[in-house]
Predict the 3D structure of the following.
Amino acid sequence: MSKTIGITGHGFKNFDIAIDRFERKVIKDVKRIVAETAEMIVSQAKALAPVDEGHLKNSINVHYYNRGLSAEIIVGAEYAIYVEYGTGIYAKDGNGRKTPWVYYSDKLGRYVYTRGIHAQPYWNPSVERARAFFKTEMNKIG
């Protein structure tokens, strides 16, 4: 029969306090980084969004979850994806409709003939800039 030798204890009060402080600081730092990154994406996307009547720009909002540890950025304008990637023959990577079409524009009060619109990226450039910031800041805290 072998005998196991070990150390048992009931914790070290100062060590437990130090761990709690460290954990709270890390969580606080992560929340700050999440918020700064989310706000960076929102402000950059709004700055880059093309303005006609401002609906696209005004539809970009952030919501926080998980007590600030998660953020969701929503672009609510129903046409947002078409602005980002283009349409028709101008669509990114040639994925658009190849033939022209006609639609009625309430804004112009007439029919419009089109082959599509060029992409006007506002979302992806914003996310890419913020991704670099997020990575750098997270690396600073460990």
